[in-house]
Amino acid sequence: MIYGEKSVERPIRWAMVGGGKGSQIGYIHRSAALRDFCFELVAGAFDIDPERGREFGKNLHVDEERCYPDYNTMFLQESRRKDGIEAVSIATPNNTHFEICKAALNAGLHVICEKPLCFTYAEAQELEALAQKQNRMVGITYGYSGHQAIEEARQLIADNALGDIRIVNMQFAHGFHNVALESQAASTKWRVDPKFAGPSYVLGDVGTHPLYLSEIMLPKLKIKRLLCTRQSFVKSRAPLEDNAMTLMEYDTGAVGTLWSSCVNCGSMHGQKIRVIGEKASLEWWDEQPNQLRFEVQGEPVQILERGMGYLHPSALIEDRIGAGHPEGLFEAWSNLYRRFAKAIVAKEQGKDIDFWYPDIHAGVAGVRWVEKCVESANLGGVWVDY
Ligand code: NAD
């Protein structure tokens, strides 16, 4: 149970690149980082527009002199201060992640980066090698993975409660972009432009989230080959897809499907994972995150509720309120930021950690999966080896 007591000796001096006023994801980064006193927001290059970024930073109680016009200036100026930043979060459009992440690691900073980590597998491997060389923590914000139900699912599978895993059925399919909203919304506009979004839209934007859930729940399953087909139902989005279906074969003989979409009309969010074993299945849906379905063949369905004593101990340690009240996206993100902070301290002290978090390898895995999906789809939807 988390009571808000310190989990690191002192708050880590932290900055943001992006996440400015009006951005979609900036607030949740700040809310999660600041919630448990693990981080302290002391600087930022919050906006592509320096003046707007400065005004916004001031409104966040950041000293005016530490509201920078761009990230390069921030990294340089902060490196000259005794009380300079130690970690930075990157919440900018996809095309900037590689350069900013590289610059931050070269400046000796720990990094929390939005997904996708970058555009290509080669770039991702470069960042992975750089993080290792610099001995810095890189965390990726696959937000819902920090929800306690995900840890419970992971433990149930590890206990063999499902038996051998046969099928993994995943989706992140919402309906908010069923029409060309990009003509009015800036944060949708860059998502459908390859210059800013990269080689894919929905595969990278939403598909990588349940992919990571599967990786964390099923660490033994390795993709052997995959087949992907992608569509641009709103024609102007081509060559980027607004819908994609991916079929995967794992080296254990299990199979998986992952539906990524923003044209699933009527769906509010639609991130789901269903893991099917030889004797039971489990299912989790982000719109009802506190309930994990556990279905043993031939028995009544069990709904495992977050916060209840029958869960695995590791699925209870990050509860912030007992069972009954819902915990959701904000709590899951706070759990991740708390783990990032603890991982940073462990890195600094050369200690091992006894918990998991979406790290640089998760970022690399997501980029690789998108690259393989695009390769398969562009070849006309053929099997490609992984
Ligand atoms: P957005 O367009 O709403 O906001 C982007 C912000 O970055 C703006 O404030 C903009 O001014 C700023 N910016 C752009 N270029 C910059 C630069 N060079 N330097 C400083 N600031 C800059 O975008 P968004 O929807 O918030 O998405 C940002 C990132 O977060 C994307 O990579 C996206 O994939 C990711 N995202 C992740 C989740 C998640 O659940 N993890 C959810 C939404 C978005």
Automatic annotation (TrEMBL):
Transmembrane segments: none annotated. Gene3D superfamilies: Dihydrodipicolinate Reductase, domain 2, NAD(P)-binding Rossmann-like Domain. InterPro entries: Gfo/Idh/MocA-like_OxRdtase_C, Gfo/Idh/MocA-like_OxRdtase_N, Gfo/Idh/MocA_oxidoreduct, NAD(P)-bd_dom_sf. Pfam families: GFO_IDH_MocA (PF01408), GFO_IDH_MocA_C (PF02894). One of its GO terms (molecular function) is nucleotide binding. Residues 12-141 form the Gfo/Idh/MocA-like oxidoreductase N-terminal domain. Residues 154-384 form the Gfo/Idh/MocA-like oxidoreductase C-terminal domain. It comes from the Bacteria. This is Oxidoreductase. It comes from Conservatibacter flavescens.
